[in-house]
Write a structure and sequence with these properties.
mainly alpha
């Protein structure tokens, strides 16, 4: 089958950051404001993620709306896993950050031992795709834990969190431009976009008394979802136009 992962472009990173913000604000909105509660929200999002993953695995090529729907749902579930450990099971953010770091490293080690590559440009088998989505889930859970550790436990705050995580991603981008390993820089940036998106989401949604802008979770989630839908639609239309203009083989 064809590569199931999109090209890493500026639009890719924009949608990725927006999806992490939706994961932060969307879960809070459903659990608190809609009144579903944490347990019902967790089960509903996990079920939707399973359905999206089945659609993604059944596809024989990259389908933008299926792929990005899966990313958004993985973002929400990854956030819920960390929140469950922190809020319900009283696991410290230091411990969860360490645990998810180890889980991600083990995933990469097994992936490389079996496939001899961690490149996202060769996700052309179901086994590689399963490794890919497992790694994605752990990056979201790790990014949530590390982001909460920095902004809450260490007192960094939302505004400084956006600046610090944005600066770290800029350093990684510069390293890539100067010839650093593309696989390493991709996964480091992928992990850091999670706390960046979460800090951005909290900054926009939280009330002013807590250092936020005060837009609320519903308006922040709707605004970011609208941008994601628009960008995915644009990608889909552009891809279809490109196929029509491409000469027949």
């Amino acid at each position: 089958m064809l590569n199931k992962v999109p090209a890493v472009t500026l639009i890719f990173w924009i949608i990725k950051i927006l999806s992490t913000t939706v994961g932060e604000t969307g879960a809070d909105y459903l659990a608190v404001h809609v009144g579903l509660g944490t347990a019902t929200t967790d089960l509903a999002m996990a079920a939707l993620l399973v359905i999206a993953l089945l659609l993604q695995l059944r596809a024989r090529r990259y389908v933008p709306w299926i792929y990005w729907l899966t990313v958004v749902l993985v973002s929400i579930v990854g956030t819920q896993i960390t929140d469950l450990l922190t809020d319900k099971l009283d696991v410290s953010l230091y411990a969860s950050t360490l645990a998810f770091s180890c889980a991600l490293m083990i995933t990469f080690a097994v992936w490389y031992a079996i496939e001899r590559t961690l490149s996202i440009h060769t996700i052309v088998t179901t086994r590689r795709e399963l490794f890919y989505w497992t790694a994605i889930l752990f990056t979201f859970a790790l990014g949530t834990a590390a982001g909460d550790l920095a902004t809450e436990a260490l007192g960094m705050g939302f505004q400084l969190g956006v600046i610090v995580f944005g600066a770290l991603i800029a350093v990684i981008a510069m390293s890539f431009a100067l010839g650093a390993n593309p696989v390493l820089t991709f996964w480091l940036a992928y992990i850091l976009t999670r706390p960046l998106g979460a800090s951005l989401g909290d900054l926009l949604s939280q009330s002013r008394e807590y250092g936020g802008v005060g837009l609320g979770t519903i308006y922040t989630s709707i605004a970011f979802l609208a941008v994601i839908v628009a960008l995915v639609a644009w990608i889909t239309v552009s891809d279809n136009n490109g196929k029509r203009l491409r000469p027949a083989e």
